[in-house]
Amino acid sequence: MNNNIMDNKTVNLQSKQKRMIDYITVSIGLALLVVGLYLIKALTDPKGVMLALPYVAIGIGCGTFGHGMGNIIQRKALKGHPEIARQIAIDQNDERNIAVGNRAKAKAHDMMVYVFGALMLSYALMGVGVLPILLLVGSYLFVIFYGIYYRVKYDKEM
Amino acid sequence: MKNRLEELRKQKGIKQEELAAILEVSRQTIGSLENGRYNPSILLAFKLARYFEISIEEIFIYEEEKEHE
């Protein structure tokens, strides 16, 4: 009985925290959008990084706003339909769905290694500057070492 | 891995959707299990065994692979 009350309290707290995070996400997105639009209007002769920054702010702002608002709308839409909410939760936690997703991600990762490799070779042959190639090589190695790190971590855990 | 899931479910007279709802998995998972396309986790195997009130071995038929043929 006490455990059930504690569980309900924890669930309510988690849902309240998620709601708060969504509202904060929407606010940050809106703020970025407004700042981006203001910068486009206010800067008469932008130079250097300021040429792209307003558009980057608008892009990130739109994405963040959309993500947060989507979550809020979804929560409101599902409020009166607990059966649909339950089905969505079942589909998200379904072990076969998770296994299918993980397998697809593994395939995509394998393909990405070849795509990155081909891209690095193409950039090198095209005579692109050293900085873009180094950034690409750095990203490639980061992803590879990220995979190795988790392989070792899971090897110890399982 | 072969199994008797479809037969057991039909004996109970329930649909795939109903079994999926009871076990809290998707209907597709039940369909794949019945077709033998997907092998369940040990937790889901126990849930199934508990639901049908039989042992896991009575649901899933283990056949050793004939590797050296």
TrEMBL record, chain A:
It comes from the Bacteria. The chain crosses the membrane at residues 21-40, 52-73, 111-127, 133-152. This is DUF2178 domain-containing protein. Keywords: Membrane, Transmembrane, Transmembrane helix.
From TrEMBL, chain B:
PROSITE patterns: HTH_CROC1. Pfam families: HTH_3. The keyword DNA-binding applies. The keyword DNA-binding applies. Transmembrane segments: none annotated. It comes from the Bacteria. Keywords: DNA-binding. Residues 5-59 form the HTH cro/C1-type domain. PANTHER family: DNA-BIDING PHAGE PROTEIN, TRACRIPTIONAL REGULATORY PROTEIN-RELATED-RELATED. This is Helix-turn-helix transcriptional regulator.
